[in-house]
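User: I'm new to structure prediction. If I give you an amino acid sequence, what do you actually give back? Let's try with this one:
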Amino acid sequence: MTERIRIDKWLWHARFYRTRVLAHGAARSGRIRLNDNRVEKAGVEVKPGDVLTIPGAARSGLSASRGVESAAAPPRRRRRSTKSSMTVCLIRARARTKSNPQPPEPRMTYVVVEACIKCKYLDCVEVCPVDCFYEGENMLVIHPDECIDCGVCEPECPAEAIKADTEPGLEKWLEINAEYAKKWPNITVKGTPPADGKEFEGVENKFEKFFSDKPGTGS
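Assistant: Good question. You get back a string of structure tokens that encode the predicted 3D arrangement of the chain. For your 219 residues, that looks like this:
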């Protein structure tokens, strides 16, 4: 059976974009073409032999026309993962000129938000390549200075409690993550999540009701 992969995931694995979130947005922007057809959905699948036209890709070190059959896009580092990226046969990249430079991508970090409180599923800990999670009694936080913006943790969280700090209204949570990452122990190994975690999914005002500043056990 022909190997296929979502276009946003391939773009991220191939390092055209630093995070899965940016790759997802690019795939939906309508600026990328697949076999000369405009792509507007991140769930579109690509396979070996497809041709992608990616604006600005030359800044990543690719030539304007490059075959990559024998040079697969390196997979992102993930803990204990057996998944690998696939190869698209040919990539066409439109080079940017000095008179029309590509603006730099903004640097960002990820933060753990209210949805984590009392759920604390710990799936994110298992995939973080730099061990930047810190454990409280009933939630986790991310150290903003250690996060490398890879984005692998975001889709792993069942409670959808990990957000990019570029989303509006997260200033409070960036401060909380920064503060408690200095106080709580580092956690690097996935443990056992709370038995009643499911019961707290979707509960409102969890910070006011349940937040604890006590440290977790770490690992």
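You can read the tokens as a compact description of the fold. Here is one thing that stands out. Residues 133 and 142 are 5 Å apart (CA to CA).
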